[in-house]
Every structure is written in structure tokens, then in C-alpha cells.
Design a protein that fits this description.
Blueprint: H1 2-24, H2 36-55, H3 63-91
Helix pairs in contact: 1-2, 1-3, 2-3
Length: 92
């Protein structure tokens, strides 16, 4: 039981940190071209974290942690996708 809660808490912490990194990548419009590579790398890390979360053990006691992880990871991926979409239009 405790091991699954620790794993869930660890993955939630990583998801929240990556989410805030994604927020910091949303710069002013003139800097979009500079942040394309970090956004792609961060998106790949978040997708890997989502895959790990899917296969990590969980119990009934850590449903809140699992749900929060599933909220923060897609939001971080969404912010990176928005940045990449806008940068693609601006940078060519």
C-alpha cells in the first residue's frame, strides 16, 4: 500500500514541476522560435511520465494523487502544444 502511494506522490510531484516548466516556456511572441526545442523535449518527458503513470501500481487510497497527475500532465502537454503550434506559424 505505502509503496503505491509513494510512487503516486512522486509522479504527481514530477507532473506538477513539468507543468510549471511548461508555463514558463510561454514567452512573449518574439521569443517563440527560441523555445521550440525545449518545448519538444518537455513534451516528450511529459508523455513518458504519462506512460509511466499508466503502468505504475496504484491502490484505492491514492486515487486523488492519480487523478491530479492525470490533470497536470495533459495541461503541461497542452501548453507545450500551443507553444509549438504558434511557433510553427511564426517561425516557418
Amino acid at each position: 500500500m505505502r509503496n503505491s502511494q509513494f510512487v503516486s506522490f512522486l509522479l504527481l510531484g514530477a507532473a506538477v514541476v513539468l507543468f510549471f516548466f511548461s508555463l514558463t516556456l510561454l514567452p512573449p511572441v518574439e521569443l517563440y522560435c527560441r523555445f521550440q526545442r525545449p518545448a519538444v523535449a518537455l513534451c516528450l518527458v511529459q508523455l513518458a511520465l504519462l506512460t509511466i503513470r499508466r503502468w505504475a501500481p496504484s491502490s484505492a487510497n491514492d486515487k486523488v494523487l492519480v487523478t491530479a497527475t492525470y490533470v497536470f500532465i495533459p495541461l503541461g502537454i497542452l501548453f507545450n502544444a500551443v507553444l509549438l503550434f504558434i511557433a510553427h506559424g511564426k517561425c516557418g
